[in-house]
Design a protein that fits this description.
heterodimer; A: mainly alpha; 2 domains; globular; B: alpha/beta; Rossmann fold; two-stranded antiparallel sheet; 9 strands; 10% strand
Chain lengths: 464, 369
């Protein structure tokens, strides 16, 4: 079920919302949130629910075990076993095919021809996200940062919370633990206005901006080999905005939905195209992932405590794993490597870079990020290298279609993402008045009309 | 909650809903204007793709509506020249909505797929497939359509895929009306998308909703049954029949034979294709929604007549092909009952159009051109 679909907007959400607030006890609300999460998730394929239920159960038991066991060895086992199970599931569904293909190619290069079996495994939607949720829960329980819950329904509500189930933000249990505990006392009226505001702004970003841009991006990528140099740059510019508005829109909707149900989901995007350097970019882009990678990978590797070269190694390892987390493809690994290099270079030449004019840094950073998106969007390395060749070697070719429509949209998108306010800034100290309500109604009506026109594409991050 | 608060909240919700509706209507129009060149004040529909003149119904030159684009001759597909390229085998496909394409994605309607398949199958032979189909065209009106609109393109081969189910709507009482083909008229002088003469207001937002919304099958059957009952109530009893109407089959045979003879006389080689449907014989329970939807257009026909009539009409096609010594391709045997091949009882899905065109590409005889 997509947030930008009629079934969600006019059936699922109203029913879930009304029943949720009609229920009085925390336990009932947990049960309802958990069940609605499974309905939401099972709408894609009911079989996936079993997998999520299994992962939830394993992590819940691990939490209980960590709550009761004091012995260090047993606690370590309670940490390692469930994480291994979660990672094995993720590895099988997401990386098995990629691993076998890569092994086959590698062996082929050294002259060993093997015909390994080809697995045609359906990737369960959002498996990377809910696996991350369960792992962070177990690690935080082990580190003593949270007290594991005894309520299976509370934990299920956390894992299967439909607002952040399939594409994040990666919400750690400790971030919404307090809200979950106080769910009985949540003030519906207080949160509803804020929730609607976030949700509608997110819907506008997704439906009106990202999906409109996708109408230009997808056909152009399908015919990338015929594009000129200017067209490829324009294509990547368009894709950069599409990706941002798609994912930022999804995150804002998730936050809005969280507020509607009395849960404060943390900010996931802070105008990343306003970033002035690579570190700044990762503090602004997919914040929940980058902070999770910092806390659970980078710091676990040793962080920056053991000298420059170890710090660089840790940075690179973290970014490589981050790239691989996005998808089982060498393009994502190279994308991670590229950002690892940017972070290392920035650390090395920080003084030089920071001495540049602010606008020059922002524009340069944006261009560097845009080049990185070539790997992120390309299905194969051949496509990525062909696009990069066309970007940097003057090539004759076709123009993008409907430039007269695309250019004004690009200007608006650039303004909003590089100068304008993001949904979190927009809602800071927001007071609902009649005028604002009408603006929200206008925006919602416009989105519904576009969705009805057939532009209800899935979110780009669902594939991860 | 106090009464005044309740009134205030209700008023605000209604105001918000109304504002959303106004925004939705404006956005639908703006979106169409931006991406489809539809003037803001126009209210186009699929019927704007067609026109009617003294020779009958035909596609409107340069007609455009949603995914359907007609060329300067009013045919769905790319621009063509009046004269075929020398040495090129020109194939014309003539039919109704099944051939024109309703549910298929753009360029996935079977004539378009057939063109691509033939090009791949005969890389050293030039072939050209022209889709001349018109939605709602009956066999009876195809002869005039052939004479006045299609024959001028001098095709080598003419694929005829008639909608035999039209003849279930024709009995002796109804024949003159159908043969005159007066349904769904629009003025030939009315240029498409001219806002000046669009006096009728049609909400484009609601039009969009209709396109995406469909009732669950059991509700749809109920709605269709009500529609049929209402229509039957207005019908004379002698029009209601529960057996295959023999006179309709005779008309079908007569019209088909005449069309075949006319095409042959003009020097082209006709090829008949039997009519495929989604239902099996006897129909399965899952076929019922499609049959009821079809019956809305032929309310006086008992449900258990529809599929046998299709079989009888296909048998007549085989007979006509034999009598006139022309090729017939049996798509019904290959596709009947394939649920994923159709969007409803008779109209193809992308997959159905692919299988159908692949069958034609395999069977078609291009020898002698």
């Amino acid at each position: 079920m997509l947030f930008n679909s009629f079934i969600f907007l006019f059936v699922f959400l109203p029913i879930t919302y009304i029943v949720f607030w009609a229920l009085r006890t925390a336990q009932h609300r947990y049960v309802w949130l958990a069940l609605s999460g499974y309905v939401f998730y099972g709408y894609w394929d009911p079989r996936f629910c079993l997998l999520m239920a299994f992962s939830t159960l394993v992590s819940y038991c691990a939490g209980l075990s960590l709550l009761r066991v004091k012995d260090a060895g047993l606690r370590k086992l309670s940490l390692v076993i469930p994480i291994t199970v979660d990672l094995l599931l993720l590895g099988f569904f997401k990386y098995a095919g990629f691993g076998l293909r890569s092994a086959e190619t590698a062996l082929g290069l050294v002259g060993i021809d093997l015909d390994l079996p080809v697995f045609d495994i359906v990737l369960p939607v959002g498996i990377s996200f809910y696996t991350f949720h369960t792992i962070t829960y177990i690690v935080d329980s082990y580190r003593g940062l949270i007290k594991p819950t005894r309520s299976i329904w509370e934990f299920s509500a956390y894992v299967s919370l439909f607002s952040q189930l399939v594409a994040g933000p990666i919400v750690r249990f400790r971030q919404i633990e307090q809200d979950l505990d106080n769910i009985e006392q949540a003030d519906r009226r207080r949160w509803l206005g804020l929730g609607i505001s976030f949700f509608v702004i997110g819907l506008v970003q997704k439906v009106l901006v990202a999906d409109t841009l996708s109408g230009f991006v997808d056909p152009a990528f399908g015919d990338y080999a015929s594009l000129s140099t200017v067209s490829v740059w324009l294509l990547m510019l368009t894709y950069s905005f599409q990706l941002y508005f798609d994912f930022c829109g999804y995150s804002a909707m998730a936050v809005g939905l969280g507020y509607m149900f009395g849960l404060r989901i943390p900010q996931n995007f802070n105008s990343p195209y306003k970033a002035l350097d690579p570190s700044d970019f990762w503090r602004r882009w997919h914040i929940s992932l980058s902070t999770a990678m910092r806390d659970y990978l980078y710091i676990s590797f040793g962080g920056n405590k053991h000298g420059i070269s170890t710090t660089y190694r840790n940075l690179m390892l973290t970014m490589l794993i981050g790239g691989l987390w996005h998808g089982a493809n060498w393009t994502f690994i190279i994308w991670g490597f590229y950002h690892g290099c940017l972070l290392i270079l920035y650390r090395h030449y920080r003084v030089l870079w920071d001495g540049l004019h602010r606008i020059l840094r922002q524009v340069s950073m944006f261009i560097l990020v845009m080049i990185g998106w070539v790997f992120f969007r390309s299905e194969t390395l051949d496509i990525a290298s062909s696009l990069l060749y066309r970007m940097f070697v003057l090539t004759q070719g076709e123009q993008l279609n409907n430039m007269a429509i695309l250019l004004p949209i690009l200007i608006l998108a650039a303004f909003w993402s590089m100068v304008g306010r993001n949904p979190w800034e927009w809602n800071e100290n927001r007071e609902w008045r009649l005028g604002y309500g009408m603006v929200m109604s206008l925006a919602f009506g416009s989105c519904v009309a576009v969705i009805a026109g057939g532009r209800d594409s899935p979110f780009l991050y669902f594939q991860f | 909650m106090k009464f005044t608060d309740l009134c205030k909240t209700t008023g605000l919700v209604l105001l918000a809903g109304l504002t959303s509706l106004v925004a939705a209507e404006f956005t639908a129009r703006f979106d169409d204007w931006l991406f489809e060149d539809v003037p803001l004040l126009a209210s186009p529909g699929r019927e704007d793709l067609f026109t009617q003149d003294t020779h009958g119904r035909r596609g409107r030159p340069h007609g455009r509506y949603k995914k359907w684009n007609l060329n300067s001759y009013g045919f769905r597909g790319p621009e063509i020249n009046l004269q075929a390229q020398p040495g090129c085998i020109r194939i014309v496909v003539i039919g109704a909505s099944e051939t024109f394409g309703l549910y298929e994605s753009p360029d996935k309607e079977y004539p378009a797929q057939l063109g691509a398949m033939l090009a791949a199958q005969y890389p050293h032979t030039c072939t050209e497939v022209i889709n001349t189909a018109v939605v709602g065209m009956t066999l009876g009106s195809m002869r005039d359509y052939w004479k006045y609109q299609v024959a001028q393109f001098r095709p080598n081969l003419v694929l005829i895929y008639p909608s035999s189910n039209f003849y279930l709507a024709m009995d002796r009482l109804n024949k003159p009306e159908i043969l005159g083909n007066t349904g769904n008229q629009s003025s030939p002088d009315r240029p498409i998308l001219n806002p000046d003469i669009q006096l009728e207001y049609r909400s484009r937002f609601i039009g969009r909703l209709r396109d995406v919304f469909s009732f669950p099958p059991y509700i749809q059957i109920y709605r269709d049954q009500i529609t049929v009952q209402r229509a039957i109530a207005a019908e004379p009893k002698e029009r209601l029949f529960s057996e295959i109407p023999e006179e309709s089959l005779e008309m079908f045979k007569e019209d088909l034979t005449q069309l075949v003879i006319t095409v042959k006389e003009s020097g082209a080689r006709p090829v008949l294709i039997t009519h495929a449907i989604r239902a099996t014989d006897p129909p399965r329970s899952k076929d019922l929604p499609d049959l009821w939807s079809a019956r809305v257009f032929i309310p006086h026909v008992n449900l258990n007549v529809i599929v046998p009539f299709e079989h009888a009409a296909n048998a007549i096609m085989t007979q006509v092909a034999k009598d006139n010594n022309i090729q017939i391709i049996d798509s019904a045997t290959s596709l009947n009952g394939c649920r994923e091949c159709f969007g409803d009882l008779v109209h193809f899905s992308d997959l159905g159009a692919r299988r159908f065109s692949s069958l034609i590409a395999k069977e078609i005889d291009l020898e002698g051109f």
